[in-house]
Amino acid sequence: MTSNSLYQPPNLRGRVALVAGATRGAGRGIAIALGEAGATVYCTGRSSRGRTRGRPPTPGRRETIEETAELVTAAGGRGIAVRVDHTKPANVKKLVAGIKRRHKGLDILVNDVWGGDALTEFGKTFWTVNLDNGLRMLKQAIHSHIITSHYAVPLMLARGRRGRGRGIIFEITDGDAFYYRGNIFYDLVKISAIRLAFAMARELRKRDIVSVALTPGFLRSERVLEHFGVTEANWKEAGKNKDANVNSKDQNDSPADFLVSESPRYIGRAVVALAADPKAKKKSGRVFSSWALAREYGFTDLDGTRPHWGNHARKKYGKYKICDERFYSYWVPGLVELIFPDWF
After folding, report:
1. For the chain, what percent of residues have pLDDT higher than 70?
2. Is the Cβ–Cβ distance between 101 and 118 less than 8 Å?
């Protein structure tokens, strides 16, 4: 397998990206990967050094948007940290106004605001879950995405008028299929991300902006590494030495699955590959996985491998159907579009 030292990212110099939810996990990996490609990256979130005064920015977490921005710059791009609560329209409006003053346009938007790990109660029915936590999850991970796109997309349209090439929106989700995801609110959030990508793609179909949903596999995030008591440097050996717990309801408790995990940079490189693809428009409105795009575009994870969560899951747990050509054939054309073909 190709070593990581041979990875050559596409050239995204001159491109301006906004990664909403860049503090940790997939958001941080995406921001750094965009930095590898030379992009200017606005790294936003609520966990900021300026707000913590020595305390953890999020209970039990120490990552900050400033740290992410520094990692973006160290990777070869330009990282800019801005503290933003994406559930508050005024915050997002101010952020976009600042990007407009500095850069006149926006090329890449990544909607990765989540914050629902502590709120999700897997295995509980909808009549027994904590309702307040569930409704809060919808606000954090669906409302925030809509708010951010509402203010950011006009700036992306302005970019197109200045001849800067195609823009692209990413909705980060979990899973490349329509299956139930173990908790009613978690399920709504992750399916909604896919549906948002589709709905925006329909309204943007006559514009030069792509809208896609993108899922990682078993993500080796900071929280998951700490759960296993390992680091990115030694995670493989640590995983092999742990006893498998295949009956656990928590994916993070299965070392067998952990050994097929991927770093956050993997989905980041998927973002870069799509952002650099001049033919990406044909993918608009659909959901893609990091492992499938790795095989299509040829990028690798940090260790030079191409982990394939889909193959592993089918072999271990059984076959499941992903969103494929037949699935999408039921989405387009819709009745409203047949009645009002010129709405957008």
Report:
1. 89
2. no
